[in-house]
User: Fold this.
Amino acid sequence: MSLRPTQSANFDQISAGIRRNLLALVRAQEQVSTGKRILRPSDDGVGTAISMSLTRQRSGVEAHLTGVHSVQPVMATSTMELESASDLLAEARSLVLQALNGTMAPSDRAAIADQIDQISDAVLEVANTRFGDRYLFGGTETAKPPFVEDNQTQESYVSYRGNNNQQRIRIGKGTTVDLNLPGNQIFGGDQFESLGFSGQTGLKAGDDASSGSGYMRLYTRTASVTGANVAGIAMSTAGGTTILGSHQLAVDGANRTVRLGNGPTKQIPTPAPNNLTLLDGDGSIAVIDFTGWTGAFVTTTLVGQGEISTDNQTWQPMDVFSSNVEVHDATTGNLLHLNARDTRKAGQELVVFKGATNLFDSLRGISADLRAMDDGDNTPEMARLNLRFEELIDGHERLLSGLGKLGSRHQRLNSTESRLQDLSTQLAGLVSEATDVDISQAVLDLQQAEQTLQLTQATGARLMQQSLLNYLG
Amino acid sequence: MTLGLDIGLRGLRAAQAALDTVGHNLSNANTPGYSRQRVDLNTSSPSRVRGILFGTGVETDGVRRITDALLNKRIRTQVSVLSGLDIQLQGMSRIEELLSEPGENGLGALFDNFFGSVSQLSTDPGDQVLRNSMVQSGLNLTDEFNHLSSAIRDAEDDNLQELQFHVGEVNRLAHSVRELNAEIVQAEASQLPANDLRDRREQELRSLAEQVDITFTEQDSGAVVVRVAGRVLVGTQNVQEMQVDATQDGDLTVRIQGSDAEVLPSGGQIGGLLDFRSTFLPKLRDELDGLAKNLILEVNRAHSTGTPEEGGFTLLSGSEAVAGDTQAERLGKLLRSAGLPFSVEEGRLYVNMTDMESGEVKIEYIDIDPDRTTVADLLASLNEIENMNAGLDSLGRLNLYSESGYQFDFSARLDESPNDYFTMGGGRATLGSSSNGPYSLTAGSSLSIQGPTGSAAVIFQASDFANIGSATAEEVAQVINQDAAMIAAGVQAHAVGDRLVIQSRTEGSTETVAVQGGGMATALGFTAGQLATGRDTSLQVEMFGSYNGDKNRTLYYQPAGDGIIGTTPGLQIRVVSEDGSPVAVLNVGEGYVPGTRLDVGDGVQVSFGYGEISATNREVFKQDMIADSDSSDVLVAFGVNSFLTGSTASTIQVAAEIQENPSRLSYSGTGSSGDNGTLLSILSLQDTSVDQLGLSIPEYYSQIVGEVGFDISTTESAAFVAESLVNSLDARREEVSGVNTDEELVNMVRFEQAYSASARYIQVIQQLNDTILSIL
Assistant:
């Protein structure tokens, strides 16, 4: 069929052409004015899904970044507070060192004790630091103070009420960072390592293992002495005997002297007393009744059998030849197995579950011991002080290592922050790449659309005017 | 002479007719559907005069329409396709606008905001402002779901109205076609050409094709019979009207009078609307519903096992009701078919009961099999837990409350003292079985035990067991513990996981328990004569850390030798999993300091205090390592402690009690106030793929949006193709049937001249006449 154009077809074509080109112009203009290539999903379905996914990743990164920002002050507060606690402990160490080295007047010791008490309270305050409403050192138990004073058997203890868990925040897919350190890992040991003895009685760790925490005060006393009833001598009923285990007693009838073990030789007065106190080289005492003595030579072995107590009130027998005496403190649950074979004298012993004492107990123990010292013989107190000082040093180191852990976490957070910032920028670039228009290309498109439209209009206008009518007279 | 006048007259008439047609053509040049007409000229029949044939001039045969029927048919088909696509595109674009993606107001951005606020809260879960903001952003998210869902429903309503309108149009056009049919038949019967009537009918048929795809056949009479999807719409005599019926639940049927059968047009606006309604909308709705459902499921999985600020619950009510008219009917239902929106899986629910005064936590569990556990069974198991009460309210919803002084929760806690019954290293004399249950027992057979205060034999009855042939340790323990003689003999039993353990009821080194015999001793894994002695100290076992494995496990701790913790050289405790495979070997002999933590793996540590343990007596304790404290999803199914309620995009909501009181937000995964386990689980939904979707929840949404975009652009390009086809066909039609004004003008001049010529000819004849007449 030959081509047979008609005016009406021509008009339709012109108007369709203008419509089409105008639409292209509007789209190009829209792209230029919004700067976006994808304005609605139908512009590019796949591109939309990709850009949405990228936007989501970016807002995820932003959320993690906000998270990091909001916990950074928490970390900073934790480390700052622990640093101040560390300074306090350093001061406490130098004070205790002073007390251990110098010969001090009781009033000076009391002054040191006061300072130690203040330090203890200040450290307790640090341990109960809050950021906003939450306690920082209670693990995930943030609503209650983690360290509280407990009264057990009239003695005040500080015990940990937090838990062993750590607060975490999410810093990426499947990646979390721990925020805090449970307080018991900073201020109190939670891992019993070995037993320490102040060494006053010669008690040692027994055959079987022990379990428990903190300090344990042990009291031993002489329950009975065998081997004394020879040649009219006997143990005095007045008491005061502290020997445990076997001690040689040698009475020199010729010189009227008596000697206990490797202690000093003592003159037996006349008349022979009923309570002559004899001192062994190891410091143990035997009080002997000489009233029935007729002046004979005596060489005998006194064997002191003992009793042991954790509270100086209820006593249990202690076989001094046993290497596995079991002592159980029902209140604390501590269980000790002791070797009593080397004990020589009765007295007080301080036992520490090394690695499982908290700083507060050490500090309080120190001030109590300082106050307990008097002008007389302070050996047991000094021995205890030494033991507690060691624990204080250990505790301080634990705190420093906690500080180090927190510090490295803080650092990790900081590096995470910069990584996340980089990632966010990178994703922003990708999102822009996926949805944004290449502006120079868009302007070019716009110009092209404009030109095409103008061309269509111009040619249309010319064509529309063509008609035979123009020439028919 | 007369002949000449006749010829002239004919010429005038013919030129007049041609000019009339030119005028008709010119004035209808822009009438849609108009086909140009042409006068058919012919020489009139010659007349014989004196034996010679003379021409008698011109004659108009008639006026003819220039059309191409085949072309018109193709145009109609394409018009149907185009208008169908166009109307679908309109609907899709409306939905596309509603999604407002990509942008800051779409569901995608709201997802981001929600997860952002969860992440923010996780950094300080106790903060009330952040908690409120999480609830608020949750509300924004659910509101948008509701909004989209109702917009889809609105689109369905609009679609129905449009359909009704277009069906009305079809019927109007059908009547018009029938009337035109009648006029054409009448006109053509009397040999009158019905050109313009046919053009109008052609135009009406095209309009009809725009509404719905039609086929028609023309009868000899000139009438057309129009069919839609094979069914007659316009017959020779009358019209069978089209009608659309909507049922209550939105199902549509299009029918044509005279038959109940559904008509399924595939093209035209009606076809397009039906297609949009039956494919695009339901697909989008199903996808959004699936998204909402999975969001609810996953968020609630995390939230239902979490704990709020108060640490636990004293009262919880479910939001979903068990289907049924009577309480008895509801109670009898299996969980699989209880009519709950989320399905219950085979699994285990852990329940923690906290004694508020002592802080002691008891961890219990319930095993659930949806194909065997009925609602009543579930309630019974819950009520069996000490201090717990469970029931259904009058609407069939689950109600849980604890007795005063107790709180309960469902969090995945690590049992810190798993050696509950001191079945390892305890003060009571303890004898463990050598094998795990179930045990094959025989009815009427016995087990006799010598306890500290006497000896007793228990006789097993079939009625005591679900299946005596495979009796569980739990069941055997229960039988022994309820036996009066056993109680009198001072004997009790425990099920340590699947293992049976027999103990003295009292502690101390003077207590003994011995298996004397009985028919079932061997079956239960004991040897006659086996004897265990109690101790004065009990072994303290403590667990630390939190389990970070990904599935629930039960670990059995059993001594590898006899001895004293921290003392006996080489003493070990073996840790094996429920299937017997080794997990860890713990050195607790000489050199082990009691209380030291030992790694069991997966973030869990264990410490043993001082004590004596015995492999000879098969001492054992177990530890449940809980990754998912409700692997049965029973809490989600009953809507207990939900963050989101509902089950579809239209019903999704933030739970009312959390909206009212944001402190009900169960952010903690372990019951402690600073934990954010629940929040971290919710956060992981951002980028963890969900089983049912195969993608993460936000990713799935992007996919939906991408598909909508893809659907639209596909339809758009199909419409573009159809439109250019229609345009080119229309152009072809114009070529055939259109009026070219220049052509007409040329014709006008031509016939004007012909007219003048004929007139001149008549004048000449008249002069001839005058000449003759003047002679006379």
User: Anything to note?
Assistant: Helices of chain A lie at 7-34, 45-101, 106-127, 183-186, 359-372, 379-435, 439-464.
